[in-house]
Specification:
With 209 residues, the protein is mostly helical. The chain is built from 8 helices and no strands. Helices cover 82% and strands 0% of the residues. The longest helix has 54 residues. The radius of gyration is 23 Å and the shape is globular.
């Protein structure tokens, strides 16, 4: 697909980028799955089995769609998945930037002001670029026309865009609050994981004495 547009070199670079991205997502997904399963579900599994399970959930459906739809269908699937990722990206990126810049959450590991400012700038650029690409895709699709159905489609897209931007602004301006009153709080009766760890350390020291 890329060979006909940018040549063989771009095809190789894109393949290497996908390979590196897959390896990175495998490692982060394995670690995240380990923490979630052990901390919340209390389900213990070897990392190799967890990696095979999580990657199979992502690879098997994609491979089946690629084999059934062919090259053209795979291209459309990549475009559609990119659009979906661009929609959900702000809701994963903005909380991450806010968390790493909050001393309430990160403590001594909080990101500095320059790092937070740089992260916000990069996030805004990425979000703006994704919104522009989605808008360009909608305009090129031919759904918005001068007909009644086209006008209704345009109005629906405008309302959805305003709601989407409002959600992003609300997420960016919402203050960070810690809530340990649910199932997580039940696991830490002292009020926080740090206090629970301190109590465990004190108990261990007393048993040693």
């Amino acid at each position: 697909m890329l060979r006909s547009v940018l040549g063989h070199a771009a095809e190789v670079v894109f393949a290497l980028a996908l390979l590196a991205s897959g390896q990175s997502s495998t490692m982060t997904g394995t670690y995240a799955g380990q923490f979630v399963m052990e901390g919340f579900v209390e389900l213990r599994m070897k990392p190799i089995y967890r990696a095979i399970f999580t990657r199979s959930l992502a690879i098997v459906p994609s491979l089946a769609c690629a084999l059934i739809a062919g090259e053209k269908g795979s291209e459309q699937l990549i475009v559609f998945s990119s659009v979906v990722l661009s929609f959900q990206l702000p809701f994963a990126l903005l909380p991450l930037v806010k968390f790493v810049g909050s001393s309430k959450v990160m403590g001594e590991l909080v990101l500095g002001r320059r790092g937070v400012l740089l992260a916000w700038c990069i996030s805004l650029v990425v979000i703006a670029a994704n919104l522009y690409l989605v808008l360009l895709l909608v305009m090129e699709s031919g759904a918005v026309t001068a007909t009644l159905s086209g006008v209704l489609a345009g109005l629906g897209f405008l309302v959805a865009t305003l709601l989407y931007i409002s959600g992003i602004v609300f997420l960016a301006l919402r203050p960070i609050s810690q809530n340990l009153t649910g199932p997580i709080g039940e696991r830490f009766p002292c009020g926080s994981p740090e206090k629970e760890m301190d109590m465990s350390t004190e108990s261990f020291e007393m048993t040693q004495l």
